[in-house]
Amino acid sequence: MLTSQRKQLILQKLAAEGQVLSKMLSEEFNVSEDTIRRDLRELSAEGRLQRVHGGALPASAATVTFSERKNLRLDAKRAIAKRAAALIEPGQVVMIDGGTTTAELITFLPHSLQLTVVTHSPSIALGLADHPLIEVIMIGGRLFRHSLVAVGAAAIENVSRVRADIFFMGVTGIHAEAGLSTGDYEESCIKRAFAGRAAETVVMASPEKINAASAWVIGDLGLINTMVVEGDTEAHLLTPFSTKGITVIKA
Fold it and tell me: What's the topology of domain 66-250?
């Protein structure tokens, strides 16, 4: 079997099963584990998968630039955002992460809604500027241009002084075993800090993020309480999350 054929079969198996293990692939293709690890390393370098200890997971499609992500699965993001917005109650302190799905979330907040929003995203803050009853608290720091959010030690210090009712977290991958992940180290740190200061954390998971993983781990699934997903997401994809005690809401 040619290397290219074996790699294609690995990707097909990964798409069908949600993960692959080096040892099992070695036995299936009758090659050494070193050969499989080389295949996985090369596929990872091409952005086709995310290597983890002992094997690989699907790579998230949500790690491209903000402008490219903006129109990725837009209908799904809008449906998810609309359902997530219904979780917000008047008078709450709400933390909103940066991202393309959270950008849709704020479009569903009525102008009559009174609450406080804490965000490290300039675009989220600007999007709420015409909501007279929403007080916006901006978390400052170094601008991470890829996601248009503030990151760094100063940002995390400011987050530590907030107690919020709910945090809407953006991720590039959510996986039952690999947990929550994103494409940048400093982003993973501030997302973890936000989650630690909220009574409830909600992940809005558009289809390309479910059972996918990125390089930087935010934390395990214990960080979150709720997932909001597209209405036609297949049940077998969601069962591993609900069995871990996460409330799964279909949009």
Answer: Rossmann fold (3.40.50)
